Amino acid sequence: xxxxxxKFKELSVEEMYEILRVRDQVFxxxxxCPYQDIDxxxx
Length: 43
Description:
Blueprint: H1 13-31
């Protein structure tokens, strides 16, 4: 894992998508939600 510090406006579309995808995975496990809100169709 590599840590980077960026302001929101410095994030690329790909970086933002990855952040949301990983965040979604965590919340799905924690909340036992059967679906992902962010998927490949959102790109």
